[in-house]
Amino acid sequence: MKGQELPATRAQAKRWYISEDSAGFHWWPLPIALFAISTLLYAGSFSYEQGWLDKFTGNLTRIQFHDPDVLQGGCMAINHKMTWRELRNKASKCARGSYFDPLHNDCYQCSAPMPQDRIFALYWNAETECRDLLLQPDLRFASHVLWTGAKLDTTTGEIVKPTLPADAMHVSRCMMEMRSRCIKQIAVIGGPGVSFATALNSDAKVDAFVASVVQHVTKFKLDGVHIADVGGNDATNGGDWKSNYSPLAVKYMKALRKAFDALTVPNVPALTLSWEEVASAFDATTTSAAGYKGCKQMSDDTGVYRCFNADIAASADFISFQVFGRHQSVELKSLMASKPWAEAVPATKLVINTCSAPSPFCRGAPLAQNDLVSVAKACSDLYKGVGLASGTEDVVKNHGASVTAMGPMGAYGVLLPQRAPKQPSTGTP
Fold it and tell me: Are the beta carbons of 210 and 254 closer than 8 angstroms?
């Protein structure tokens, strides 16, 4: 047998050694391994961005969108299973005021509000993980979720968005799933401790404020904003909020209304603009035996007091009137019976706002559950609706007990349009 031919030169020997019988380092698998690892990392990142790997639950699998808690008795369109990625990609293309119907694979317009329908406004802190909210079965009673946490930049007048949880995917998913139930998504601007008087002290700042609100609403496809300008009679306005400050509130509310009306397009609901009002606003008491002066009382540690300017109601779709934070001499039962708001706010624009637990948005003592129930019933019978300012605390700490108690008391909740399932085509006979 002929022996193996050896290389004649050193160069040939080097090439021959590397290419055929190398017993040393094998370099050729390295680029393949690097390519494989890079591909895996890219695929993982891409999958997270596209929603294939579910960030909301932490599962490294595609989950099915399946919600058994929408309307008692079930709803075929919502209960129809589909991947979260597909839902997100398709639902994001639906116009505001429409929802994606997985059963029919299309966007469909939410039912127009009927005169007998009532608002159940559930306030939710945008800086709190909203998973518990979605898992609350009686969320079906809510018609509006009011996302609190937005403040004002006192230098420019523009809004300052709330600090979202570490993964903003949570908020976007919560909003999208609630849109699939036709629950309106409202941004709350302001709250206790936010000074509109300081932030909007010039025409330029008011213009910047309105422009930033419009941009915020448009970018996140929100259904409107709720203004919580809840200052009172104090030293900044000479002890008279109505005379010395409220004209500014009337001005920027008119500007917001005009800007929202300009955004109106056919077949899309108009943007909602609402106003938060404090408990003393309609109290015409002069001076009680205890020295209480009603809406002319100076604000202090016991509460915020001011008189309502009826011109605000002209720009607002509804007024959310707080029945918490009342002066200690004012009983809830007598307040509800006397209806001091009747001359200033039409019943069709009045939402009674309640508080069931200590909350950053609430002042004073929370209402007892029997009071919450009676207010919810009265609001369904007589007014536009009811609100729960302590929605976050009620759901997170109390398993939504107040929502569960108040929801069945009236015409609350959103009914999705009734659509028959698609029938298979039988072809032309």
Answer: no
CB 128 within 8 A of CB 174: no
Query: In 3-state terms, what secondary structure has residue 101?
Result: strand
pTM: 0.81
3-state DSSP percent of the chain in helix, strand and coil, to 5: 35, 15, 50
Nearest in space to 232 (alpha carbons), one of 152, 297, 157: 297
Distance CA 382, CA 20 (A): 92
CB–CB of 69/137 below 8 Å?
Answer: yes
Residues 6+ apart with CB under 8 A from 205: 156, 157, 199
pLDDT digits (tens, 9 = 90+) for 303-346: 899 999 999 999 999 999 999 999 999 999 999 999 999 999 99
Domains of the chain: 35-109 (no CATH), 118-409 (3.20.20.80)
User: Could you write out the DSSP letters of every residue in 116-144?
Assistant: T--EEEEEEETTS--HHHHT-GGGGG-SE
| Spatial contact of 277 and 308, defined as CB atoms under 8 Å apart | yes
CA distance 429 to 425: 11
